[in-house]
Amino acid sequence: MYQNGNEFNMSKFWLFLFCFFSAFGLADNTPTADVQAQILAARPIATVINCFGVMRTPTTAISHLTSSEPGTITELTVQNGAHVVKGQKLLVLHLDPTVIQNWVQAQNQLVLARQDLAQQQQLAEAQLGTQANVAQAEHNVRTAELAIRTLKSLGADHAELIFTAPQNGIVSQIMVHEGDHVDAHTMLVSIGAEHKMDAVLQVDPEDAARLATGMNVRFGDVFSSVQNGSGRISMIGHSVDPQTRKVEILVSVKQNPILEGMALRARITVSTQNLLAVPRAAVLQDNEGSFVYRISSGHAHRVPVNAGHEDNGWVAVSGDLVAGQHIVVLGNYELQDGMPVREELLP
To answer: pTM to 2 decimals?
Structure first.
């Protein structure tokens, strides 16, 4: 009987220990997860359209240099894409011998016309000639002088023509090479005015219907995530390109880090709203949909959400959420609904 009483007391002792540890949570084998959380708040979320395009100088900002006379390109000092300043030498055109011959002939014609005028004036004074002959001689002088001025304006009074940049800008196109023979009125070089480029974007027709002139656009090199170029929509096309099936959008550029002709990636801001938003990493997804973990009384609770627009790493969310709640942003992949957590609150 004494032994049985001992066993009974030991049973009561172990039952006491179990109740004691259970009361202080020491018998709970559920692990506690370390997480980082952020206070839920409303922030500006932009609805954007992402698209691609190319940088282009508008035709109104391009100067074209053309040959006034036939000749041969003997020197070409620039290349496509080069930055030039006003007055910088671009190329040299050596005039054809026939052009120089025409200049010499025009000079000779003027000398002869002036000599004939002097002679006709002397004859008229001696009453050996008529005033009609003097008038005709004067007309011949004016005609010869006009021919000289015309040839001089075309550069025929020089064996070579030196073409210089008419403005600060970028060489957008070179149509000739050294050694090429060109005819009169041949286009040689095109210079796009500095800081006067447009971004030409291609968007889907359904996106074009959401756009309006004046909307802000950010853009950058197509191979870079940095978008430090900016501008505003100045024109929206009203037709779909039959090849690309896109609508062309023209953007007046304010700040441009991209060279003409380069491909670019653009981001058009359609609208901006203040919405509850969380970092992208806070939103998880499984077969039941999108959800986040909200911390309450030291435990993480799963909350289904509707994930909306994303803007610079922040995702708009709606559901059983209110501003000020703590949302897990790191460590959420290890959580289960109701799991205890140690929280580090991020700024």
So the answer is: 0.54
Query: Measuring CA to CA, which residue among 315, 281, 287, 318 is closest to residue 303?
Result: 318
Of 291, 296, 320, 295, give the one whose Cα is nearest residue 307. Answer: 291
pLDDT tens digits for 179-200?
999 898 899 999 888 777 789 9
Decide: helix, strand or coil at residue 6: helix
CA dist 267 and 230 (Å) reads 10
Give backbone dihedrals phi and psi of 233, rounded to 5 degrees, phi first: -65, 125
Mean pLDDT of the chain: 85
Q: CATH code for 31-45+274-345?
A: 2.40.420.20
Helix (H, G, I), strand (E, B) or coil at 261: coil
Q: How far apart are CA 24 and CA 229, in angstroms?
A: 60
Q: Which CATH number fits domain 48-58+195-272: 3.40.190.10, 3.30.230.20, 2.40.30.170, 3.40.30.10?
A: 2.40.30.170
More confident residue, 69 or 215: 215
**Residue 343 tokens, joined:** 């929280």
d(CA 217, CA 230): 6
